[in-house]
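Thread: glutamine complex, take 2
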Amino acid sequence: MADTKYIFVTGGVISSLGKGIIAASLGKLLKARGYKVTIQKLDPYINIDPGTLNPYEHGECYVTVDGHEADLDLGHYERFLSTPTYRGNNITTGRIYQNVINKERKGDYLGKTVQIIPHITDEIKRNVKLLGAQYDYDFVITEIGGTVGDIESLPFIESVRQLRWELGKNCLCIHLTYIPYIAAAKEVKTKPTQHSVKELQSQGVQPDILVLRTEHQLNKDILRKVALFCNVDVDAVVQSVDVPTIYQVPLMMQEQKMDETVLRKFGLVDAPKANLEPWKAFLNKMKEATETVRIGLVGKYVELPDAYKSINESLLQAATYNDRKLELQFIHSDKLTDENVEKNLSSFDGIIIAPGFGQRGIEGKFIALKYAREHDVPTFGICLGMQCMVIEYARHVLGLEDANSTEMNPNTPHKVIDLMAEQKNVTNMGGTMRLGAYDCKLEKDSVVYGAYGKDLVQERHRHRFEFNNDYREQFEEAGMKCTGTNPGTGLVEVVEIPSMKWYLGVQFHPEYNSTVLTPNPLFISFIQAAVKNKNAK
Ligand code: GLN
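Output below.
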């Protein structure tokens, strides 16, 4: 395609309407037509990236292959599109300002007053256009975080206004709003949408397409009314009714010809038809699965469904491909004791020990692991979960009492998990962990090798601590094998106990690399083991 087309997705009325899912669904439909598509998220907060936020603030921190700590929406983009995202796919206000201030210090604006318009907006526009140019995409979909009217998002909306002007026909705006249902009046209300569009218009942006999020099916009259009040074509008003799974949203958008409307507005009239067959096959599998697999996830953010978003989705994908309905339950590691562990864990076919940082909830993870190991329950430890597997094994099998990670106890007599050498002089917290994809060499005849079916894999990382190789022999002799290592540094990436059904820990995060059409092999293998365990009960 000659020129990259730019699509902006803004949100109105309230937050949490699912702009990321709408952006990902449209991206999916365009990709299924053979186009090269990428999705970008602009976040209006001042942090340089979400790496220093705790999950209570912003849910899971996602990691790209090139080691960028990113908003969790990038996870949706990858799961829907099965194409990697990079540092350039997630930009915050903080990064925009940092770039501008660095340029100012270098003297790039010598003699000039540096201002929001044009300097900040120029930098925002540069970052949007750069993404299209760098990788030669046909479509760049840019989601603007926050809600129209927020002070923080003003420079982003202003940049959209300018880009519309500059890009002309190669630019389009989609606005997602909410249509509330007033139960007492038995009516849906369009007024908040009208106000939200007015707000957008007052900032100089006229949306081309409106997506109305609603809990109740909207009739044609409502759609017509919204179109009339908001200066939008009737066929460009799309409704997004609640559906049982987010993976149904692309089909719902396709039924309403959203992708056709987009293409028509760009003048792409004879675009190829979308091939959604593999996607539909996945959804059918999901619908048809009747038997369940019960997984318990032991972590400390149990009340936050978004804190382990990528793990939830990877498990759902793996269960679906194993023809099982996923029954996932979170167990608060803080609340586990030797007395209640049996009651809390005995009903699960498989157990996940979650990633994390810091001391809180850690002892509960050891209690869960001791139970799982002694009862031979298929268990999957991810990052901190893997480190906990090592510590629990050291304490209870190797007899190294008080073994620990130096993250939890810097004075432990047995540092079975220790700070990586490269981290010892690190003082800044932001973006300084071991981040992104690294090679991992797998031992033949191991569970992990069996899962991947090859001996070299790349998975993503986010950690500062590692398995202490001084103890490697001791572990291996006792029966916990190191079956995956970084070929360059010898850093232990995978541990497993071959005498057990499926007991495996990984230093990396396979959940960041699992999509609807390319599920991660380790999750597939874990669920297989859990199903086998269930059938043997
Ligand atoms: N806190 C551990 C480390 O930094 C594990 C990190 C994680 O689980 N992502 O090594």
